[in-house]
Amino acid sequence: MLAACGSGGDGDPAPATAVTGELTVFAAASLQVPFREIEVRFEAENPGTDVVFDFAGSADLVARLSQGAPADVFASADTANMTRAVDAGLVAGEPVNFAANTLTIVTEPGNPEDVQTFADLSRPGLDVVVCAPQVPCGAAAARVEDVAGVTLEPVSEESSVTDVLGKVATGQADAGLVYVTDALRAGDDVTAVPFPESAAAVNTYPVAVLAEGANPVTAAAFVAYVTGPEGRRILAEKGFAAP
């Protein structure tokens, strides 16, 4: 992998091509676990780098970037929000698809409400939480509703998939729709209930260097790491599929 370059001499600044310095990465909330591991390995292979993450819903991240929030890299949980970023002139070069994810139902541990199918989520009296429609996981949920011919009436629509997971894990909701990777990360805090209709709503994750980033060289190196063999291995280990 790329290594950090040394200084040109006593008191001289590092060359402009050095992979070094602070790197701000805006990333979808569902990427927290693999990206934290990638951070450790990337920094170890590139001494002098410091990766700083801001994890949130992809739509919120694009809105903040459009308002001038400083960042070097954007990783979205869907292509729609990356397209918004590209159309707004926020992206340098072409985004690269690096992972894919699908939805699963999660319930409180042990599935006390006996949720077995996607249609069960529409049962009266069942408190269901989903992502808001502008968020990738919410858009995916809407596609599944269309395919399944089921209309959900959630008690809340959250701004990120981690918020949905948190409400189910803490007993504030009976069930929710999250990514397979989030259910895997939650372990025994929830029970996952796969459903076949999820195949109709596979989300592809793209990543890109941002046009106004302060550290484009390190940004490009980070994107190369995420999309390279080691990044792919970590993502697969955490339950993500290939794009």
Descriptive report:
The protein contains 8 helices and 10 strands. The protein folds into 2 domains: 114 residues, D-Maltodextrin-Binding Protein, domain 2 (3-Layer(aba) Sandwich); 98 residues, D-Maltodextrin-Binding Protein, domain 2 (3-Layer(aba) Sandwich). Helices cover 34% and strands 24% of the residues. It is of the alpha/beta class and 243 residues long. The strands form 2 sheets. A 5-stranded mixed β-sheet has the order 2-1-3-10-4, sandwiched between helices. A 5-stranded mixed β-sheet has the order 7-6-8-5-9. The protein is elongated and about 60 Å long. The N terminus is likely disordered. The longest helix is centred in the N-terminal third of the chain and has 14 residues.
Write the layout of secondary structure elements.
Elements: E1 21-28, H1 32-45, E2 49-56, H2 58-66, E3 73-75, H3 79-87, E4 91-101, E5 103-107, E6 128-131, H4 136-148, E7 156-158, H5 161-169, E8 175-179, H6 180-186, E9 191-193, E10 203-210, H7 216-227, H8 229-237
Parallel strand pairs: 1-2, 1-3, 6-7, 6-8
Antiparallel strand pairs: 3-10, 4-10, 5-8, 5-9
Helix pairs in contact: 1-8, 2-3
What's this entry about, in short?
With 243 residues, this protein is α/β, with parallel strands linked by helices.
